[in-house]
Amino acid sequence: MQKSTLHGQTTTGIGSLATEAARVRPVASVLARITNYTRRNKLQALDELDDFMLADIGLTRNDIDWARELPLNRNPLAALDDLTKHRASQRRQAARRDLPGTFRA
After folding, report:
1. What is the pLDDT of residue 1?
2. How many Å separate Cα 61 from the centre of its chain?
3. Given CA atoms 74, 77, 78, 79 in this order, what sign does their dihedral have?
């Protein structure tokens, strides 16, 4: 088996890389939670918009409250973005079904 140097330490094979990954994983998890916590603070800016402006971007106050209550391992801004994309897709599909002259099976 070939030896290599990783961060100044001599490692041997895949087992050592797995050990290194196991050390890094908890740190990455904590950093992701801290990042998602700071993203929750950005929800305050959405909270300050009136209901009409929220509707323009496809959100409601309940959506913001829902995003704020997500676990810290979930990105609340990405979750809201996914929600608005899903709703827009549903509206497009409904509009296609309601078009006159379209074939319905």
Report:
1. 45
2. 19
3. positive
CA–CA gap between residue 18 and residue 55 (Å, rounded) = 47
CA distance 44 to 100: 43
Q: Say how many Å lie between the first and final Cα of the chain, rounded.
A: 62
Position 70, amino acid: L
CA distances to 18, 38, 64, 74 from 77, rounded to whole Å, are 32, 11, 9, 9
Q: How large is the average pLDDT for residues 41-70? A: 93
Close Cβ partners of 72 (under 8 Å, ≥ 6 residues apart): 33, 36, 37
Confidence at residue 32, expressed as pLDDT on a 0 to 100 scale:
83
Give the predicted TM-score (pTM) of the model: 0.63
Of residues 59 and 35, more confidence is placed in 59
